[in-house]
Amino acid sequence: MPSARRLSPALAGLVGALALSIPLSALADETQLVIQSANGDHAFTVEVVDTPESRARGLMFVEDLAPDAGMLFDFEAERLVSFWMKNTLIPLDMLFITADGTISNIHVNAVPHDETSIPSEGPVQYVLEIPGGRSVELGIEAGDTVTHPRID
C-alpha cells in the first residue's frame, strides 16, 4: 500500500494561489434566462445572486461583461428596491422584474461609479443587470416577459 504523502509547502502555496485566481463567476451557478419581446426571444447566461452579501457586491469591480451575460438579483419576494453604481466599472442596463416575470421598468446605461439611487417604479422580486445599452439594441421594453428557473 502506498504511503500517504504531504504536499510540499511550495506546491501547497501554488495550489492555493491558483484557487484564488479563479474568478468568482467561474465558481457561481450560471443559468439561462430568456426575455420574450415583440421582436423575438433574447437569451442571456446569468449568475443568480440571492444573499445580502452577493446582492450588495453585484457586478462591482467587473471589468467586462459579454453581450449575452448578466446577473439576476433575487429578492425572494416583491418589494421596492434601489440600486447604485458605486464601484461598478461598466455601464449597465437594469431591468426591474415582478414575481411573475413581467419587466416593470428599465434603467438604460447606468453610469459607472455614479452613487445616485436607481429605484424600481413599484414592487419587484428580481432585477436583471445586463451590459449598458443592450436592452435598447434588442428592443426589450417594459411589459416584456422573462423566463428563468427561479421565476414563476
TrEMBL record:
Q: Which Gene3D superfamilies match?
A: Protein of unknown function DUF192 (2.60.120.1140)
Which segment of the chain is annotated as a signal peptide? 1-28
Q: Which UniProt keywords apply?
A: Signal
Q: Which InterPro entries match?
A: DUF192 (IPR003795), Saro_0823-like_sf (IPR038695)
Top-level taxon in the UniProt lineage:
Bacteria
Query: Is Signal given among the entry's keywords?
Result: yes
Pfam families given for it? DUF192 (PF02643)
Name the record gives this protein: Uncharacterized protein
Q: Which organism is it from?
A: Devosia chinhatensis
Lineage of source species: Bacteria, Pseudomonadati, Pseudomonadota, Alphaproteobacteria, Hyphomicrobiales
